[in-house]
């Protein structure tokens, strides 16, 4: 799986970036807010955190400025009725903090303003997300290292929100190896505390 791309911006499209990574050109669909950044110009070096979607007929990359946005994108993909394009539209319309606010307020109107989401789908999304979305600081408290820990906990069967809360609550340095961080997080998640 492609987790990130560092390259030169070869082309800026209406909904995607094409990055030249040492002669290999990758297209990554990105939130519209990223395309409006001042530092984004053809010929400049740029890094994207990515999520790769594998389908029978296509391999598609979705790119984001921050690892936290990738975590949210993955969480949204887990919601019934939300595919990659709708999840990307949601992250184009709302920052992660705004999305938490929309879910907490159960704001069907705001969510249904996203292209591809009607009121019925918005209600279903809010129902699926209720109680599952940790604060954005919990998802990306220490950057990529925490995402590594969150993904390790998820592979052991914990939910994204349980994993994010446990990762945010450990006292081990973010630069520490995965194993001690994982053990500390598992101790937090165990019934004995």
Task: Note down, in words, how this protein is organized.
The protein has 193 residues and is α+β, with helices and mostly antiparallel strands. The chain has 3 domains: 4-64, OB fold (Dihydrolipoamide Acetyltransferase, E2P) (Beta Barrel); 67-129, DNA polymerase, domain 1, CATH 1.10.150; 136-189. It is built from 10 helices and 5 strands. The chain has helices at 32-35, 67-77, 84-93, 96-105, 108-111, 119-129, 136-139, 144-155, 160-168, 178-189, and strands spanning 4-12, 16-21, 24-29, 45-55, 58-64. A 5-stranded mixed beta barrel has the order 1-2-3-5-4. A hairpin with a 3-residue loop joins strand 1 (4-12) and strand 2 (16-21). Helix 2 (67-77) crosses helix 3, helix 8 packs across helix 9 (160-168) and helix 9 (160-168) packs across helix 10. The longest helix has 12 residues, at 144-155. It is globular. Mean pLDDT is 82; it is low at 135-145.
Write the layout of secondary structure elements.
Blueprint: E1 4-12, E2 16-21, E3 24-29, H1 32-35, E4 45-55, E5 58-64, H2 67-77, H3 84-93, H4 96-105, H5 108-111, H6 119-129, H7 136-139, H8 144-155, H9 160-168, H10 178-189
Helix pairs in contact: 2-3, 8-9, 8-10, 9-10
Q: In sequence order, what are the helices and strands, one letter per element?
A: EEEHEEHHHHHHHHH
Number of strands: 5
Q: Per DSSP, what share of the residues sits in E-state strands of 2 or more residues?
A: 15-25%
State the separation between the terminal residues, measured CA to CA: 34 Å
Regions with little confidence, pLDDT below 50 for 5+ residues: 135-145
Give the biggest beta sheet.
Answer: 5 strands, mixed, barrel
Radius of gyration computed on alpha carbons: 17 Å
CATH superfamily grouping of the largest domain? 5' to 3' exonuclease, C-terminal subdomain
The appropriate CATH architecture of the largest domain is Orthogonal Bundle
Biggest sheet, strands in spatial order? 1-2-3-5-4
DSSP helix fraction: 40-55%
The CATH top-level class label of the largest domain: Mainly Alpha
Q: Summarize model confidence as the mean pLDDT.
A: 82
Which class do the helix and strand fractions yield? alpha+beta
Structurally, how many domains make up the residues? 3
Shape: globular
CATH topology of the largest domain: DNA polymerase, domain 1
């Amino acid at each position: 799986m492609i987790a990130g791309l560092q390259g030169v911006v070869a082309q800026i499209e209406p909904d995607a970036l094409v990055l030249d990574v040492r002669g290999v050109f990758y297209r990554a669909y990105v939130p519209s807010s990223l395309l409006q950044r001042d530092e984004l110009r053809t010929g400049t070096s740029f890094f994207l955190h990515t999520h790769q979607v594998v389908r029978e007929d296509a391999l598609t990359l979705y790119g984001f400025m921050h690892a936290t946005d990738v975590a949210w994108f993955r969480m949204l993909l887990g919601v019934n009725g939300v595919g990659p394009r709708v999840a990307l539209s949601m992250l184009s319309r709302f920052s992660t903090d705004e999305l938490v606010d929309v879910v907490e307020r159960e704001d069907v109107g705001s969510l249904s303003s996203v292209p591809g989401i009607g009121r019925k789908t918005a209600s279903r999304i809010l129902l699926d997300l209720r109680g599952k979305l940790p604060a954005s600081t919990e998802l990306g408290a220490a950057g990529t290292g925490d995402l590594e820990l969150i993904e390790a906990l998820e592979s052991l069967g914990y939910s994204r929100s349980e994993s994010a809360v446990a990762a945010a609550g450990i006292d081990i340095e973010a630069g520490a190896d995965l194993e001690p961080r994982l053990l500390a997080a598992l101790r937090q998640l165990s019934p004995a505390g």
